[in-house]
Design a protein that fits this description.
Length: 169
């Protein structure tokens, strides 16, 4: 749980207190009542299908052999569908069409809830958003080996929906 020292509303030093059946950081001032609920952050992810292949990306800062799905945080007043189409355009420069919702996947390590979709990328050149994406590759669906984290489980589920059996790496 992230720790705060002071209440962001009134500035008083926070204490640990029971709220909602769990110990949480909270303001001791009853007239303020601020509680840090530490709810998961919604993140959208896309299995980007293009010409029978799946586009995987490697984020800046990841080890050279780590590739994953296009992902990003929702923005204010944005639906998850709008968010993932925006992220695909921003990160790899492709317009895409919504396919279907794959599912919801908890990613406990980062306190996130992954909302995973299948999208179909339109024709065009991949243009990487270099401040976020170091490289990308296109892999035939039958060759992909999903990873055991949230987006990898989503990829495995999507492959299964296509009748493609896959093993985790």
């Amino acid at each position: 749980m992230p720790t705060f020292s002071y209440c962001p509303v009134c500035g008083k030093e926070l204490i640990k207190a029971q709220h909602g059946g769990k110990e949480r950081q909270a303001c001791p001032d009853p007239s303020c009542g601020w509680v840090h609920w530490d709810n998961p952050t919604p993140v959208v992810a896309a299995v980007v299908e293009r010409k029978g292949k799946v586009v995987l990306v490697r984020n800046v800062g990841w080890p050279e052999k780590w590739f994953g799905l296009v992902t990003g945080f929702l923005e204010r007043n944005e639906t998850p569908e709008e968010g993932i189409l925006r992220e695909v355009k921003e990160e790899i420069g492709l317009d895409a069409t919504m396919g279907s919702l794959i599912g919801l996947y908890p990613f406990y390590m980062r306190n996130q809830l992954i909302i995973a979709y299948h999208v179909e990328a339109h024709e065009g050149e991949i243009v990487l958003q270099e401040s976020e994406i170091a490289e990308c590759k296109e892999i035939p669906m039958e060759s992909i080996r999903p990873w055991k984290a949230a987006t990898g489980v989503a990829l495995k589920d999507w492959l299964a929906s296509k009748g493609i059996e896959s093993e985790f790496r």
